[in-house]
Structures are given as structure tokens and as C-alpha cells.
Design brief:
Layout: H1 3-6, H2 11-23, E1 25-31, H3 35-46, E2 51-54, E3 70-71, H4 75-79, H5 83-100, E4 105-114, H6 119-147, E5 157-160, H7 161-167, E6 178-187, H8 189-202, E7 206-208, E8 211-219, E9 222-230, E10 241-251, H9 257-265, E11 275-286, E12 295-299, E13 304-310, E14 313-317, E15 321-322, H10 334-344, E16 359-368, E17 382-388, E18 391-396, H11 402-417, H12 436-441, H13 443-450, H14 454-464, H15 468-477, E19 484-485, E20 488-492, H16 493-502, H17 508-515, H18 518-521, H19 530-541, H20 545-565, H21 571-578
Helix pairs in contact: 3-8, 3-11, 5-6, 13-14, 16-19, 19-20, 20-21
């Protein structure tokens, strides 16, 4: 079987992997299908270990699909003198952009505006700020060049006021005395996680979504497995809940890590790991709302603000506030939206209003908790702890360094598993990366041979890399698959079909929110695409008219609940509005069978079934 065939996360593959979960004993069982969990599955499987991964919802359904879409070193870490974090992140940025995922990670230019001033004092201040910021960006480039494994990004450049406004005409004339242009990496975060999961599957890992870990299996004081509930099983099915045996369990559960800590406290253990959730909200506006060829990075009182080019759109974010409410569905409030508009409008010549907003999304960063009152001061470092024999927790970090976190936690597992070879993921391209440069070079010829516009070919290559040939085969077999998706002409029908056939998508929300970005790239938030997408998915997954209608109803209700939450004045009321719609996977907690604060998309509270 080829690597590509072995990577397909089809409905049949899910059924086969469920059988494996019931029958086999794994070296490593991973709870959590975000970037770190999927990265750990790939790391362990590529070392020759027998690996399983369970995810309660969908790949990247939490933090890993709601980021700023950047692979970056973090300029502010230089200011905080955290050079080791910058070194680590820029090394990973270079690997992703040049070797591991060049089809998904590409350079994006940013301007750092230099504040204006007047008079002799203002002139001296401008000179000092240019030298200060210039030194920082030069150090950033130096770290990438000296320590980075293939920089993959152009060098920075100083610009005058006129030069800055040529690149970003919407920059107010009095907002900057000049600027520095530098480059970082941009990524579709959810698609990268799917690529990680598929690459892990190609290495032999059993990866299953809609499979919720509901308790640890223990022998004395050693964890020997996990009880799992198949959320796609028929209600009342005796096969819905089962045990998965494993020599080591890794919990890569992000902002849900503290729930694991509380569970272990109840059996007399202290993990020594605390995670706080910081909410980051992003606005999406059409490209026409702002005139510019580059992004902006701005300093605010509490954090940094990005204005990021994103295809035919701009992403504006982010906030950085403590969040103690529902972690599965963090809600953006009217206060968050007003804050972001107020900050970005300080530098734009035409202020943005709420009417310009196409989409809004909110995510939670898992920060290692310390003594700081503000989440913006908490550490972005990660930690690996072993609170109980056979159980490892990994938490903290940032999206860019997912591979480092994955390698660290698998290294720790390898110590108890015996002779295991070192991590090889630094040299293992993700699915779609092999041969990408040649295919991109020949994209015009490829488009002509398959009868599609060059723009469509570029769109597919930047989302699927060399896996584009699979989508072209769908279109060749059925030309209707090459037609635009209703309400979202940037996407093809084939992309929805492929998501259900090969990328593990099980529900409408999986496709409209994560396999594509229609839920925040269109003013209708995907409402006008839902019917068409449900038909395409249903043809693969065997949905009848009733199931298609239920999926569409749920998706539309979710969109409306999110719209309502964004009109609420604060976090508490926004959270209440968003929670009006239960999760499509029908968690017991969402049906009221368990308390509403049920922790973890991985583990229920101690004392519950299976604990």
C-alpha cells in the first residue's frame, strides 16, 4: 500500500481503526487531536511504535484551528530576552517552510510602523525608535539565519514614511514616520493538523475522531489504558464504550490539562502542572476594506495586534484575556470586537465598522500558569510531567513549536518503553510536501491538462500540495466536482467530497469550519453553503434526507448562536448565548446527562463512569 493510500482517513478507515482500538495493545495512546497530539502521534509512529490517537471532536477542533494563522518566532520574546524561545521557534519555522510543509507554510510580509513625532525631540525619538526596532528585527533575522534550519523567509528592510504607505496605502499619514518590513510564516492551522494526522496514519497509527476518552484504566498506581466512547455509535449500542490498552498514555489536552490535574488530585497525586486559558479573538474583513500589500504588527497596551493578509480577506487580532468559562466553545463578545476595531482604527485612514466584519472566531491559548496577574505575561514554554506511572501530560507551548513538544513527550515515553530510536520528524515531510516545488513550477501545464483555470490549480496546491492529484482525479471522473461550492465560489465541490472521503470529516461543521474556512470567510458564515455541502458529504457518508437536514439545522443554529454571542456585552453573557446550541456530536454533558462543567474532551470528572 502506498503512503498516500495508507493516509486516507475514510469512513472505512475509521471503522478499521476502531476495531484496532478494541483488539490491540498499543505502545502509545494519545488523547487529543490538536497540533501537539497529532504531532506526537506522528513522532511516535515514525519511530516504529504502535500508536493510537483518540479525539473527542474533530482534528484541531479546539485551540489548533483558532490561532492567528502564523508560524513565527515571536518578536516580543526578543524584547522579553527569551532568546531560547525565539531560537526554537525560528528553527521550527525554517523546517516547516522549507522541508516539512512548504505547501502549507509560506512567507507573509509585515510592516512594523515607527511612531511619528514632531519637533527636535520628536526627531530624536524617531531616530531612537528606528534604531531600537531595527535592532530587534535584525536580531530576529540573525537568529533565523544562524540557528534556523533553512530560513525560508526574506530579510528585513527599512522604509521611509512614503515607502511604507506605498506598500500599505490605508496607513494613516500621521500614524508612522516610517516602517520596517520583515517576514514571518503563514499557515492554515487546521489543515496542517489534518496533514499531521494523515501522515501519522500513513506510518501505521490508528487515528479516530468522535472518540471521547471517558476515564483512565489503572492497575494499582499504573495507568494501563483508557476507556473510550464512540460518539458516532447508535444510541444505546453495547459497542459504544470500550477499553483501549496501552503501555503509555499521553494527554495532549491543551486548555483542558487542569481537569486532568484535578482528577489526579483526587487519587492523592499532584501533577505540578497548571494551565490557564487566554482568549484570543480575531476579526475577518474583506480585502477591499483595507488597501495594502503587506500585514501590520502594532503594539497595544496589553499585547500585540496583527493585521494579516489572508487570501481575499484580512485577519485582525488578537485579544489576550483570561477565560474561565466554557472551553470547548469560547465566545467573542461585543466588547472584544469593539476593542479590536478601536485598536486597528488608530492607524487606518478609513476606520472599520462592525458592518465591515465578515467573520469572527475565538480561541484559547494554553499558558503555563505562574504568578503573573495578566495572561499576556504567562509563559509560552511547554512542560512534560509524569504524574502517574504510564501517564504523561504535555502542556503549554505555542503552535509553531508543536513538533518540539511532540518529540519531548515521546522521548519521555521512550524511556519506559525501552529501545526506541530518536525522533525523525525534522526530516519527515508531511503528506503533500514531497515534489511540491516541481508541481508548483509546472502548475500552468497541469491546469491545462486537467481543464481548470490556473488560479484554481494554485488554490488547490496551496491547500493540498501534491495531494492535489487526488482532487483532480475526482474532477476528471465527475466534472460537477469541479464546480464552485454554493455560497463560497473560492472552494470547489471536490474539496467537500475529499474532506469526507480522505480527511476524516464526519460532520458539516468539520468541513465548513476546519477543512475549509467558509464559516468565517463569508458574510453568511457558511449558511448559504450548508445544503450543498451536506449533499456532497452525504453521498460519501451515506446520509439520508433526515440526517442531512439535521446536520444543516445544527450548523445554522450554531451560526446564529455565535452571532448572538457577538452582540453580548461581556464574556458571561456571550458564553451563555453560545451554549444555547449543543455540540453536534451529542456529548452527554450537552444533553444534560452530566454537569455542564464536565472537563476535558478526553476525561470525565473523577468518580464518573470508567474512572
Amino acid at each position: 500500500m502506498s503512503r498516500y493510500t495508507a493516509s486516507q482517513l475514510s469512513p472505512q478507515r475509521r471503522a478499521a481503526d476502531l476495531r484496532r482500538l478494541r483488539a490491540e495493545r498499543f505502545d502509545v495512546l494519545i488523547i487529543g487531536g490538536g497540533a501537539t497530539g497529532a504531532g506526537a502521534a506522528l513522532d511516535a509512529a515514525s519511530r516504529g511504535l504502535k500508536v493510537a490517537l483518540v479525539e473527542a471532536r474533530d482534528y484541531a477542533a479546539g485551540t489548533s484551528s483558532r490561532s492567528s494563522k502564523l508560524i513565527h518566532g515571536g518578536l516580543r520574546y526578543l524584547e522579553q530576552l527569551e532568546f531560547h524561545l525565539v531560537h526554537e521557534a525560528l528553527t521550527e519555522r525554517g523546517l516547516l517552510a522549507t522541508r516539512l510543509a512548504p505547501h502549507l507554510v509560506r512567507p507573509v510580509p509585515f510592516l512594523v510602523p515607527l511612531p511619528a513625532g514632531s519637533g527636535a525631540r520628536g526627531l530624536a525619538g524617531r531616530a531612537w525608535r528606528r534604531a531600537y526596532y531595527g535592532a530587534g528585527v535584525a536580531a530576529y533575522d540573525a537568529f533565523a539565519g544562524i540557528f534556523g534550519t533553512g530560513r525560508g523567509m526574506p530579510l528585513h528592510r527599512h522604509l521611509t514614511r512614503e515607502g511604507a504607505r506605498r506598500l500599505f496605502p490605508s496607513l494613516r499619514a500621521d500614524a508612522a514616520a516610517g516602517a520596517i518590513r520583515y517576514y514571518d510564516g503563514q499557515v492554515d492551522d487546521a489543515r496542517l493538523v489534518v496533514a499531521l494526522a494523515r501522515t501519522a496514519a500513513s506510518q501505521g497509527a490508528a487515528v479516530v475522531t468522535s472518540a471521547r476518552a471517558v476515564g483512565l484504566v489503572r492497575q494499582a498506581r499504573e495507568v494501563t489504558g483508557v476507556r473510550v466512547r464512540d460518539l458516532e455509535a447508535a444510541h444505546g449500542s453495547p459497542d459504544a464504550e470500550f477499553e483501549v490498552r496501552a503501555r503509555t498514555v499521553i494527554a495532549a489536552t491543551g486548555v483542558w490539562s487542569d481537569d486532568m490535574s484535578r482528577m489526579l488530585n483526587d487519587v492523592g497525586l499532584r501533577p505540578g502542572l497548571r494551565v490557564r486559558a487566554s482568549k484570543g479573538v480575531h476579526l475577518v474583513v474583506p480585502r477591499s476594506a483595507i488597501t495594502g500589500e503587506v500585514g501590520l504588527i502594532l503594539r497595544t497596551a496589553s499585547s500585540v495586534l496583527f493585521v494579516i493578509p489572508w487570501g481575499g480577506h484580512w485577519i485582525i487580532g488578537t485579544t489576550d484575556t483570561d477565560w474561565r468559562l466554557d472551553r470547548a466553545h469560547p465566545a467573542a463578545s461585543a466588547r472584544d470586537i469593539d476593542y479590536l476595531l478601536g485598536q486597528v482604527n488608530t492607524v487606518l485612514d478609513r476606520p472599520l465598522t462592525a458592518a465591515d466584519i465578515e467573520g469572527v472566531y475565538a480561541g484559547l491559548r494554553p499558558l503555563l500558569s505562574g504568578e503573573a496577574d495578566s495572561t499576556s505575561k504567562l509563559s509560552r514554554e511547554h512542560a512534560v510531567v509524569e504524574p502517574m506511572l504510564g501517564l504523561l501530560l504535555v502542556a503549554g507551548g505555542k503552535y509553531t513549536t508543536y513538533r518540539v513538544m511532540a518529540a519531548d513527550v515521546v522521548d519521555r515515553a521512550a524511556r519506559r518503553l525501552g529501545s526506541v530510536r530518536p525522533s525523525r520528524t525534522a526530516d519527515l515531510p508531511l503528506l503533500g510536501a514531497d515534489g511540491y516545488a516541481a508541481m508548483w513550477r509546472d502548475r500552468a501545464d497541469l491546469a491545462r491538462r486537467h481543464g481548470v483555470p490556473v488560479g484554481v490549480m494554485e488554490h488547490l496546491l496551496e491547500r493540498y500540495g501534491t495531494l492535489t492529484v487526488d482532487l483532480l482525479a475526482l474532477i476528471d471522473a465527475d466534472p460537477l466536482q469541479g464546480s464552485p461550492l454554493a455560497g463560497a465560489p473560492e472552494y470547489l465541490a471536490a474539496e467537500v467530497t475529499y474532506a469526507a472521503r480522505a480527511e476524516g470529516a464526519l460532520h458539516l461543521d468539520d468541513v465548513l469550519t476546519r477543512r475549509t474556512r467558509i464559516s468565517f470567510e463569508t458574510g453568511h458564515r457558511g449558511a448559504e453553503s450548508a445544503e450543498h455541502a451536506a449533499e456532497l458529504m452525504g453521498a460519501v457518508l451515506g446520509w439520508d434526507a433526515e440526517v442531512r437536514a439535521r446536520e444543516v439545522r445544527h450548523y445554522l443554529a450554531r451560526v446564529e448562536a455565535e452571532r448572538q454571542s457577538q452582540r453580548m456585552p461581556d464574556d458571561a453573557t456571550a458564553d451563555a448565548a453560545r451554549l444555547g446550541v449543543p455540540d453536534v456530536r451529542g456529548f452527554a454533558a450537552d444533553r444534560g446527562d452530566e454537569p455542564s462543567d464536565t472537563p476535558l474532551p478526553g476525561l470525565i470528572k473523577p468518580g464518573g463512569a470508567g474512572s
